[in-house]
Amino acid sequence: xxxxxxxxxxxxxxxxxxxxxxxxxxxxxxxxxxxxxxxxxxxxxxxxxxxxxxxxxxxxxxxxxxxxxxxxxxxxxxxxxxxxxxxxxxxxxxxxxxxxxxxxxxxxxxxxxxxxxxxxxxxxxxxxxxxxxxxxxxxxxxxxxxxxxxxxxxxxxxxxxxxxxxxxxxxxxxxxxxxxxxxxxxxxxxxxxxxxxxxxxxxxxxxxxxxxxxxxxxxxxxxxxxxxxxxxxxxxxxxxxxxxxxxxxxxxxxxxxxxxxxxxxxxxxxxxxxxxxxxxxxxxxxxxxxxxxxxxxxxxxxxxxxxxxxxxxxxxxxxxxxxxxxxxxxxxxxxxxxxxxxxxxxxxxxxxxxxxxxxxxxxxxxxxxxxxxxxxxxxxxxxxxxxxxxxxxxxxxxxxxxxxxxxxxxxxxxxxxxxxxxxxxxxxxxxxxxxxxxxxxxxxxxxxxxxxxxxxxxxxxxxxx
Length: 465
Ligand code: 2HG
Ligand code: ZN
What we know:
20% strand, binds (2R)-2-hydroxypentanedioic acid, binds zinc ion, alpha+beta, Uridine Diphospho-n-acetylenolpyruvylglucosamine Reductase, domain 2, single chain, seven-stranded antiparallel β-sheet, Uridine Diphospho-n-acetylenolpyruvylglucosamine Reductase, domain 3
């Protein structure tokens, strides 16, 4: 526990009333969307300026206090959970858009800017911020950078990393670094910006980010296609990839669709029962493109890969089709799912999924398994639902036992144990399935450079030693 005198000193470093220790704040700010670890922070501090963040980090070094960064707390790997008396640094008051350059197509954001705020701002300028996911209404830019967030448009636009033109970070020693300064071309040695993207706050805190924007897409149109089995999805992807510039290619299983339809607020795409569904999106910029999409759909039906399908004809229909996929994570959260966020190269997906499915069938015969994800990126979300009668601890323990087999397959396919949610605490014990001992040693050496006292989000990415 932190000494009273140290906390008093912390209070002098920020605006009045911006150190919170009441039970409700500790509970709210101490966790993210994972339900594995009970939150137990010592205090929450809410800086308003870069200088205040630097002062907090210097204070933490002097008092050997661990800091946990906190954004929208929508993480799914416990990367922003404070379970061991840490001080949470929350960026709610650093939430301004500081600048825009139409020529460079860049926006300067404080870390607490909400993703949707950035998307809306881009739209107001006639431009587009393309990184998007279901939690964009709460997640913050700093957190997106910390986890290199992916989402539903990666097939076309890539991950958050692609859109970071410059970063200001406060390192674990309290130094302020300005990285890449918005440049398009910069060949001056190590690009430290990229080390901080996806570092989960273990090297330092992002205090300002210059984000790139793109041109706005034209007439986005979605199709939902039902397939008889999983094996049919990949030829469908291949067929459409060859003909259209896809902005998304997602999938979900019949079990996922059933959970969505049971909500009662999302219309069914069609009534033919199918085992799997693909949701694809493209820019129907001309009539020719829409005709090409329909011809490709008919080809897929003729091949037996697709049983039924629907194409959006309006903005409302587009939104409704996306709800089938975007509402999944929140809808099944009611059943306290055990989550996996695994990836392989796209060509390996069918064989990989078959191997994983065999393990899951053999070891989880009594659990409901819901598959969905960003199949066009080779990223599968394997969600195992907790039976109502089972305790959370018993359920997570039984899932953790099977993880070994799942991750052995991931390793065999040269895949990733975390495609887009980050390692945090939930995946730290499995890092070795995706990274070699030599790589992990290099990663730890890098951490020691930026955070010699080990105060920046300790216990995340790496298991405590
Ligand atoms: C998604 O793709 C999110 O919907 C959440 O990454 C994934 O709930 C999940 O497992
Ligand atoms: Zn996802």
